[in-house]
């Protein structure tokens, strides 16, 4: 229990320091570099995951609804599920595995080799130089990757709908976009910003608190991935509930 309280207290303290360091000039070069590392290099993984997800969902919905004559509802079901849930959640989980581990191991290695102490000795804030660019890069990259994942998953579902379920492509597209509300787009897109924080902040926290030398780097990396994944899955429930309440009252 004590360790849990210390963990959440440390996360809150780190997040407060991140907000304080938002003031003043930002390191645009460092942010751009991290956007490339986090966003561009994660793109192939996100595309493969999204395409597989869209195709599997279309196939499963098609097989399940075919016996009831409900194949025509597949485009709508697949599209809404991707926009609201599968697109942001699967993309965030992939980034938690790749980016969360990378951030934790990189910062942890810097702690072990005393590079963080050297930055402090030079009178520079390691939060501003090391942590903030990675957090902002996640906040920029993840929503963009979610948008790409949604499109790729839709195209994957369309391919299965046409080839396996024998649906007309124009009919599929029309049924997919008909009756979609702004909340369908907004809910998944808004989740991506929260998921970005769930990935970046714990990864930075574990990296900055590495102990036991190089052995601790591996432990911190594992903890960062597991913690981020749990935050994403639990946070998804509460965010879904929140957007459902908002949609109900608007």
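^ structure tokens above, recovered residues below v
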């Amino acid at each position: 229990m004590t360790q849990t309280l210390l963990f959440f207290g440390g996360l809150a303290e780190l997040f407060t320091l991140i907000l304080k360091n938002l003031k003043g000039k930002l390191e645009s070069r460092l942010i751009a570099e991290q956007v490339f590392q986090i966003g561009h290099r994660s793109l192939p993984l996100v595309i493969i995951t999204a395409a597989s997800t869209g195709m599997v969902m279309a196939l499963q919905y098609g097989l399940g609804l075919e016996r009831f004559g409900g194949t025509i509802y597949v485009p709508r079901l697949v599209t809404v599920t991707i926009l609201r849930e599968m697109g942001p959640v699967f993309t965030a989980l992939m980034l938690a595995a790749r980016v969360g581990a990378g951030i934790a191991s990189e910062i942890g290695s810097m702690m072990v080799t005393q590079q963080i102490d050297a930055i402090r000795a030079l009178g520079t804030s390691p939060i501003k130089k090391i942590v903030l660019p990675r957090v902002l890069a996640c906040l920029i990259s993840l929503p963009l990757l979610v948008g790409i994942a949604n499109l790729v998953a839709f195209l994957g579902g369309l391919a299965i709908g046409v080839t396996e379920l024998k649906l007309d492509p124009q009919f599929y597209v029309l049924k997919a976009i008909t009756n979609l509300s702004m909340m369908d787009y907004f809910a998944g897109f808004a989740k991506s910003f929260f998921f970005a924080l769930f990935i970046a902040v714990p990864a930075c926290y574990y990296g900055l608190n590495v102990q036991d030398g190089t052995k601790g780097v591996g432990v911190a990396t594992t903890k960062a991935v597991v913690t981020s994944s749990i935050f994403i899955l639990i946070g998804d429930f509460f965010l879904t509930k929140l957007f459902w309440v908002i949609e109900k009252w608007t």
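The two ends are 40 Å apart (CA to CA).
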